[in-house]
Protein backbone atom coordinates (compact mmCIF):
# COMPACT_ATOMS: atom_id res chain seq x y z
CA UNK A 1 0.00 0.00 0.00
CA UNK A 2 1.25 3.49 -0.80
CA UNK A 3 1.20 6.33 1.74
CA UNK A 4 1.80 10.07 1.36
CA UNK A 5 3.63 12.27 3.88
CA UNK A 6 4.11 16.04 3.82
CA UNK A 7 7.61 17.43 4.26
CA UNK A 8 7.93 19.49 7.44
CA UNK A 9 10.34 21.85 5.67
CA UNK A 10 8.84 22.62 2.27
CA UNK A 11 5.39 20.95 2.41
CA UNK A 12 6.09 18.69 -0.59
CA UNK A 13 4.29 15.36 -0.93
CA UNK A 14 6.50 12.30 -0.46
CA UNK A 15 5.20 8.83 -1.31
CA UNK A 16 6.26 5.54 0.29
CA UNK A 17 5.18 1.98 -0.36
CA UNK A 18 4.52 0.28 2.96
CA UNK A 19 5.70 -3.25 3.54
CA UNK A 20 3.05 -5.46 5.17
CA UNK A 21 4.11 -6.74 8.59
CA UNK A 22 3.26 -10.36 9.38
CA UNK A 23 -0.25 -11.64 8.85
CA UNK A 24 -1.96 -8.39 9.87
CA UNK A 25 -3.71 -6.68 6.99
CA UNK A 26 -3.68 -3.26 8.68
CA UNK A 27 -0.03 -3.17 9.87
CA UNK A 28 2.56 -1.56 7.60
CA UNK A 29 6.28 -0.82 7.87
CA UNK A 30 7.51 2.59 6.68
CA UNK A 31 11.00 4.11 7.19
CA UNK A 32 11.12 5.99 10.51
CA UNK A 33 13.08 8.87 8.97
CA UNK A 34 13.46 10.01 5.39
CA UNK A 35 14.82 12.82 3.22
CA UNK A 36 12.36 14.94 1.25
CA UNK A 37 12.59 14.36 -2.50
CA UNK A 38 12.28 18.12 -3.15
CA UNK A 39 14.39 19.92 -0.53
CA UNK A 40 16.26 16.92 0.98
CA UNK A 41 15.22 18.02 4.49
CA UNK A 42 15.24 15.28 7.15
CA UNK A 43 11.74 14.23 8.26
CA UNK A 44 10.36 11.71 10.73
CA UNK A 45 7.39 9.46 10.05
CA UNK A 46 4.42 10.36 12.28
CA UNK A 47 2.52 7.74 14.25
CA UNK A 48 -0.29 5.94 12.36
CA UNK A 49 -2.94 6.27 11.03
CA UNK A 50 -1.35 7.40 7.76
CA UNK A 51 -2.92 8.94 4.67
CA UNK A 52 -3.22 6.52 1.77
CA UNK A 53 -1.99 7.84 -1.56
User: Which spans of ≥5 residues are poorly predicted at pLDDT below 50?
Assistant: none
Helix content: under 10%
Give the topology string: H per helix, E per strand.
Answer: EEEEEEE
Largest sheet: 3 strands, antiparallel
The neighbouring-strand order within the major sheet is 2-1-7
Q: What's the end-to-end separation, in Å?
A: 8 Å
What is the count of distinct domains? 1
Structural class: mainly beta
- Number of distinct beta strands: 7
Quickly count the helices. 0
How many whole angstroms does the radius of gyration measure?
11 Å
- What form results from the Cα inertia axes? elongated
Proportion of residues in extended strands: 35-45%
In round numbers, the mean pLDDT is: 92
Record the SSE blueprint.
Layout: E1 2-6, E2 13-17, E3 19-20, E4 28-29, E5 33-35, E6 42-44, E7 51-52
Antiparallel strand pairs: 1-2, 1-7, 3-4, 5-6
Note down, in words, how this protein is organized:
With 53 residues, this protein is mainly β. It has one domain. 0% of the residues lie in helices and 42% in strands. The protein has no helices and seven strands. The chain has a three-stranded antiparallel β-sheet, with no helix packed on it. A hairpin with a 7-residue loop joins strand 3 and strand 4. The chain starts with a strand and ends with a strand. The mean pLDDT is 92.
